[in-house]
């Protein structure tokens, strides 16, 4: 794309497009060549940033654990302990089952999602422009054909993958705590029930439909809430970046407001995960 062809619309689209990799009949292809590749298209920027930030999370907490002391803790140890204790308190107040997995899972979700959301505060043109420069100078590519979307949670594929993981845990905990028979009974004998066996049998299709919808909407809500809030925030940053010199004070104001969104969305995702797993672990979630 030549410089004179760049419009506000194409600029926004460029910043909101993932770097793609796919397999074709002629070998590996990238970006625009993957337009018709179907389901098996890898968003390599989402994968790279999410995995990299996951490793950063592990390194930070591993470093804090290896340097921890029973004496007077340093500021770094105090900060990490505050996060761990805060997550632990929320899990104890919310999860009413008995599982050693829930607290570490909640901590991982909160910190990992927070780090991915935090990428939204990096200036929107910085890393995409750098990626375009590398692609142009090292590989002879047109810089406008090089994409770099650095906020993994603005990719619905990433948020859906996280939500599917939670959904699998929900099903697993339901079966573990209630057995297969109890899980099936929960889907077919609620919310409508009757002491009359014939009426109870007639109500099974309606109960199954309602309970299946209620079950499936939980991961959908997790995925769409996180994606929608972060995608909207990134879009506003991009629009602010197009106003010229006035973008600096506007960026600062929106970044300050967005700090709350970044933290809150990570916290909400964590808490809803714990709530859903608590419901799955309950003998009677109705």
Keywords:
286 residues; mainly alpha; three-stranded antiparallel beta sheet; 8 helices; 4% strand
In short, what is this structure?
This protein is mostly helical and 286 residues long. It has helices spanning 8-15, 44-66, 75-94, 102-118, 126-139, 156-188, 197-240, 247-281; strands spanning 20-24, 27-30, 41-43. The protein is built from 8 helices and 3 strands; from the N terminus they run αβββααααααα.
Describe what this molecule looks like in 3D:
InterPro entries: ATP_syn_F0_a_bact/chloroplast (IPR045082), ATP_synth_F0_asu (IPR000568), ATP_synth_F0_asu_AS (IPR023011), F0_ATP_A_sf (IPR035908). It comes from Pseudoalteromonas holothuriae. With 286 residues, the protein is mainly alpha-helical. The chain has one domain (3-281). The protein contains eight helices and three strands. A three-stranded antiparallel beta sheet has the order 2-1-3. Strand 1 (20-24) and strand 2 (27-30) form a beta hairpin. Helix 3 (75-94) crosses helix 4 (102-118), helix 4 (102-118) runs antiparallel to helix 8 (247-281) and helix 6 (156-188) runs parallel beside helix 8. The chain is globular. The relative contact order is 0.13.
Topology record:
Blueprint: H1 8-15, E1 20-24, E2 27-30, E3 41-43, H2 44-66, H3 75-94, H4 102-118, H5 126-139, H6 156-188, H7 197-240, H8 247-281
Antiparallel strand pairs: 1-2, 1-3
Helix pairs in contact: 2-4, 3-4, 4-8, 6-7, 6-8, 7-8
Family: Belongs to the ATPase A chain family.
Subcellular location: Cell membrane; Membrane
Function: Key component of the proton channel; it plays a direct role in the translocation of protons across the membrane.
């Amino acid at each position: 794309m030549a410089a004179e062809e760049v419009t506000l619309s194409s600029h926004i689209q460029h910043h909101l497009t993932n770097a793609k990799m796919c397999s074709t009949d002629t070998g590996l292809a990238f970006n625009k060549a993957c337009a018709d590749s179907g389901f098996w298209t890898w968003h390599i920027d989402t994968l790279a940033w999410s995995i990299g930030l996951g490793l950063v999370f592990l390194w930070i907490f591993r470093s804090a654990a290896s340097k921890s002391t029973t004496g007077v803790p340093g500021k770094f140890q105090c900060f990490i302990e505050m996060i761990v204790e805060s997550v632990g308190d929320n899990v104890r107040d919310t999860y009413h089952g008995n599982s050693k997995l829930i607290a570490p899972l909640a901590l991982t979700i909160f910190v990992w999602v927070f780090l991915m959301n935090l990428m939204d505060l990096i200036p929107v043109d910085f890393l995409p422009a750098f990626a375009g420069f590398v692609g142009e100078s090292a590989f002879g590519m047109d810089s406008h054909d090089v994409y770099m979307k650095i906020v993994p949670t603005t990719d619905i594929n990433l948020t859906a993958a996280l939500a599917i993981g939670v959904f699998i845990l929900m099903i697993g905990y339901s079966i573990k705590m209630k057995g297969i028979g109890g899980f099936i009974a929960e889907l077919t004998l609620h919310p409508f029930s009757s002491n009359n066996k014939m009426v109870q049998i007639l109500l099974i299709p309606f109960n199954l439909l309602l309970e299946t919808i209620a079950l499936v909407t939980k991961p959908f809500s997790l995925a769409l809430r996180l994606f929608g809030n972060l995608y909207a925030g990134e879009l506003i940053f991009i629009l602010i970046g197009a106003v010229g010199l006035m973008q600096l004070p506007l960026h600062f104001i929106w970044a300050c407001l967005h700090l709350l969104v970044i933290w809150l969305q990570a916290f909400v995702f964590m808490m809803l995960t714990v709530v859903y797993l608590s419901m799955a672990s309950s003998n009677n979630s109705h």
